[in-house]
Structure formats: structure tokens, C-alpha cells
Write a structure and sequence with these properties.
By secondary structure, the chain is of the alpha/beta class. The chain has helices spanning 40-51, 65-73, 102-114, 152-165, 170-186, 191-207, 215-234, 253-260, 273-276, 299-311, 330-339, 352-360, 391-394, 410-419, 446-456; strands at 33-36, 56-59, 77-80, 94-97, 118-121, 134-138, 141-145, 237-242, 264-267, 284-287, 315-320, 343-347, 372-377, 399-404, 427-432, 440-445, 462-466. Strand 6 and strand 7 (141-145) form a beta hairpin. The structure holds S-adenosyl-L-homocysteine.
Length: 479
């Protein structure tokens, strides 16, 4: 079985984004922990550590009642009726203390660190190597929450919500999952089928949290995946996935699901890092960006790579910016795959035009003003403005025109459009990196857009939108 533990973990934060604290889940069974202090706080931490299976040595000259009870009731808790000394910390994994002053806290942490332990001084975050977060306990399912001390009440409110989201019955579900895990692995199902099994298992848990799964459920779940298992074992496939214009939240659920089951992800330049974060962690990620005029793998090379990977039995996700079927050279890839007898699926995405229109809060169609929308590329095979564009259609005052790949040839395009009779005062907006956090807009008219874009020198992918429809939200067309 490979990498099963991480299959369903999705990174929801962009790679490299700052992380206030690292959430980790310690196995404490058999790992000695030390608690110094006799108050309620010390008792609570003792109980927590002992619940997680740690043998806990508590040093307290005057133990509170609760500590006395714990020591009497829990086999792992040993109460030493004296103050702690540095020697007591030897061999401890975790050392927790109550301290009366910062000075005492500092001394404790220094001794703990010298002994190789990580320290927590209760209610003195400045002297803590780690914090105890709030938690939702559905063991073996455990959710930990931390706000790094920034907003404890907020954290508690969130905890309350998670409590309702994860009913107590989930403990039994997670327990059964643990029991079944080895058996499912032993069936040696293909990755996708195994994943599907656990997805169905989770669905059932959410639908029926109060009733733990039975052997009959196990059989039903296996029946669901077995057909797929047979098919999946046969050969790999390629899924062309629309990555949307940039904002990862614009991915479809289908796209996320495909990314989560990919063995390999091939992606373009236009695909944002946040989108790639949704890929299965173990998936190999290959950058096949066609970077303008710089050397790149080239379309035939990409198609060949897709065929090679799918023929080798891989589930390949080919991530394309926007929608794969719009200026995405999808046909070449689909034909190459079909010619090789391989399965190909296409998952649509939000095309840049839709992303830009949404950002602008500007409808591309407008009753009476724009009854037609046309998407054109201003980038011919040789990089120049294609000569054979339908200039009459492009000069249609009743259409909204969205120009993809139009920055380099912008001035030539404007000249042609004016020559074809399009009114120079037609609203024209260039949207740079639509839906990315650093999106920029250049608001102008057909006559002024050329120099305005030259001045602004946009660096990202840009879309030019032209047409009377854009005059409607005139008040909104601010840069
Ligand atoms: N399949 C893509 C288009 C690929 S062609 C889609 O459906 O959107 C590449 C061109 O798309 C770029 O040169 C640019 O004109 C446009 N584009 C892609 N993403 C964009 C974005 N976030 N903002 C503005 N234009 C974008």
C-alpha cells in the first residue's frame, strides 16, 4: 500500500504561506512526560497527557485534590510530593509547568530544553515551545484548533461548529475505518478504487453518523467500487481539466476530485500555484508551460508525454488555464490520445472571459446593446495578428468582443477595427491577471486603449474586452 495516509489531505493554503504554528499529532504511548506544579492547570494537563497514553511524572509539593484523584485513578500518573528539579526532566518528551513568575518559567524552559524536552508553561505563552490547542475528540479522529493565542474565543466558537459537524458517532466510524484499513489494503485495489471506497465510506458516515458501519455496509461499499476497480486496472487515462483563470476557488468540484486522484499533473504557466495545491500530494507535477516565445516542450511533445503516461497506466490530469476547450489546443491532445486508443475526459473550467467579466461586474451581454459575444485570438500561428479575422463581425457595434492573447498585437488590432468602422469611443477594458490577487484593469476606449496599455506595461495574461455592453456599468469602470 502506498502513501495511503496522505491521500485525502488537501493543502488549503498556498505553498510557502506563513504558518503561525505547526499542527502535529504526537503519539505519546510510552513516552515519559513531566508536569511540574500542583494546581488545577497542572491537573488538567496531566489528564490530557495521560489520556494520550503517556506515563506522566507529576512533581508537586502541594497537589490539589484533582491531582490526588488522578494519581489514585490513572495507572500512568505518578505523583511525587516535592518540587521539581532539573534531574527530573531527563528523558522527558514533553515538560509542562505552572510557574509563578516569568523568571521561574524561563528557568523551567531552559532546564527542559537542556534535557531535550519541549516545554509548555501554563498561561505563559512567551515561554512555550508548543501550545495545547482546543480540540474535538472523536478518537481515533482528533481535530486540533489553534489561533496562536490571537483569538482564543474565536477558536472556541470554531470548535463548537466543528463539534456539530463531526458528531460523536464519528468516533465509532473512525474506529471501524481503522479496523478495516488493513483488509482493504490487502485487496490490492487500484488506487482510484481504493480512494473511491473511502470516499463512499465518508459519505455514509456523514449521512448516518449515529449508526456505526457493519459488515453489510462493507460489502455494499466494495460492490460499488469493484466495477470501477476492474476498469481502472485496465489502463490509465487523461483528464483535461479547466483550471479557471487564476483564483483556485473557481475550480469545479469535478476538477478538485480529478486532481485528488491524479498520479501525474501536467500544467501550464497560466495555472496558479493555489490550484496545484489541490493536487494529490504524491502526484508528480510537471510544468509544461508554453512560455510565450521562450523554449518550451512544444505541443507535440506534450501530447506525446500524455500518451506515454496514460499508456503506462497512470491517471493523468492535464491542467489548462481557463477552459480547456477555449484557445487551449485541446483538440491536438484529444486526437493524439484517441489515436493511441486511450481514454480522455474533459472537465470544463471558467474561461478568462467569464472570470474577467465577473471581476468587472460587467455583463458581456446586454439587452439591446450586445446580443452577441465573440471570443477571438489576436495571436496567429506566427505570433502576428491573424489576417483572416472576420473584421466586419469584429466591428459589429452590437457585439461584445473578448480578445485572448491580444497584448502584443494590440495596436495593429485597434487600427484594423477602426478601419473596419468600429466607433473609436467604444469602451475597451484590458484585464491583467483576471481573478488573481494582483489583478489590474486598464479602462479606456478603442481609441485610447493602445497608449494606455503601453504605459501600464502589464506583465500577466491579459484579456481585452470591447463593446457597448461595457458602457452600461459606467460608474463601475474604475481602474
Ligand atoms: N483556455 C484559456 C485561454 C488560453 S489562451 C481560457 O479559457 O481562459 C491564453 C490567454 O488567455 C492569455 O494570453 C490571456 O489572453 C487569456 N487569459 C488566461 N488567463 C487569464 C487571466 N487570468 N486574466 C486575463 N487573461 C487571461
Amino acid at each position: 500500500m502506498t502513501g495511503d495516509k496522505n491521500e485525502s489531505e488537501t493543502r488549503s493554503v498556498a505553498a510557502g504561506a506563513p504558518l503561525a504554528t505547526l499542527p502535529v499529532f504526537f503519539k505519546l504511548s510510552g513516552r515519559r512526560c513531566v508536569v511540574a506544579g500542583g494546581g488545577d492547570g497542572a491537573a488538567w494537563k496531566t489528564e490530557l497527557l495521560a489520556s494520550a497514553g503517556a506515563p506522566v511524572d507529576v512533581y508537586a509539593a502541594e497537589p490539589c485534590e484533582r491531582l490526588e484523584r488522578l494519581a489514585a485513578g490513572l495507572a500512568g500518573v505518578r505523583l511525587h510530593r516535592r518540587a521539581w528539579t532539573a534531574a527530573d526532566l531527563a528523558g522527558a518528551l514533553i515538560a509542562v509547568a505552572e510557574a509563578e513568575s516569568d523568571h521561574a518559567a524561563q528557568a523551567f524552559r531552559a532546564d527542559a530544553r537542556a534535557a531535550g524536552a519541549i516545554a509548555n508553561v501554563i498561561d505563559r505563552p512567551a515561554f512555550c515551545d508548543f501550545q495545547f490547542g482546543s480540540m474535538v475528540n472523536r478518537s481515533p479522529l482528533v481535530v486540533g484548533i489553534s489561533t496562536d493565542g490571537a483569538a482564543p474565543v474565536f477558536g472556541q466558537a470554531l470548535r463548537a461548529r466543528i463539534e456539530t459537524l463531526a458528531p460523536e458517532g464519528f468516533a465509532a466510524w473512525a474506529g471501524v475505518a481503522r479496523e478495516w484499513r488493513a483488509d482493504i489494503a490487502a485487496l490490492d485495489l487500484p488506487f482510484r478504487a481504493r480512494r473511491r471506497f473511502w470516499e463512499e465510506f465518508a459519505e455514509l458516515a456523514f449521512a448516518r453518523p449515529g449508526v456505526a458501519p457493519t459488515i453489510a455496509d462493507l460489502q455494499a461499499l466494495l460492490a460499488v467500487v469493484s466495477d470501477e476497480a476492474v476498469a481502472a486496472a485496465r489502463r490509465g487515462k487523461v483528464v483535461l481539466v479547466g483550471a479557471g483563470p487564476g483564483d483556485p476557488e473557481l475550480l469545479t468540484l469535478k476538477a478538485v476530485r480529478a486532481l485528488q486522484s491524479a498520479d501525474v499533473v501536467l500544467y501550464d504557466d497560466l495555472v496558479s500555484p493555489g490550484v496545484l495545491d489541490f493536487a494529490r500530494r504524491e502526484a508528480e507535477k510537471l510544468d509544461v508551460g508554453k512560455r510565450g516565445y521562450r523554449p518550451s516542450p512544444g505541443q507535440p511533445g506534450i501530447s506525446a508525454k500524455l500518451v506515454e503516461l496514460a499508456a503506462a497506466g497512470k491517471t493523468v490530469v492535464r491542467l489548462k488555464g481557463g477552459d480547456p476547450m477555449i484557445f487551449g489546443r485541446a483538440t491536438e491532445e484529444i486526437e493524439a490520445l484517441q489515436a493511441a486508443g486511450l481514454d480522455v475526459e474533459v472537465i470544463p473550467g471558467v474561461t478568462a472571459a467569464s472570470g474577467a467579466a465577473a471581476s468587472l461586474r460587467a455583463s458581456l451581454t446586454e439587452r439591446d446593446l450586445a446580443r452577441r459575444v465573440q471570443y477571438v485570438t489576436a495571436h496567429g500561428r506566427d505570433g502576428a495578428l491573424p489576417e483572416d479575422l472576420d473584421w466586419r463581425a469584429l466591428a459589429d457595434p452590437g457585439a461584445t468582443t473578448v480578445v485572448y492573447m491580444g497584448v502584443r498585437t494590440l495596436s495593429a488590432l485597434v487600427d484594423k477595427l477602426q478601419a473596419a468602422g468600429l466607433d473609436p469611443t467604444t469602451p475597451a477594458i484590458l484585464v491583467d491577471r483576471a481573478t488573481w490577487p494582483d489583478e489590474r484593469r486598464i479602462v479606456a476606449t478603442l481609441a485610447t486603449i493602445g497608449p494606455a496599455v503601453e504605459r501600464a506595461a502589464p506583465a500577466g495574461p491579459c484579456l481585452l474586452i470591447l463593446g457597448a455592453a461595457l458602457s452600461r456599468p459606467a460608474g463601475r469602470l474604475q481602474d
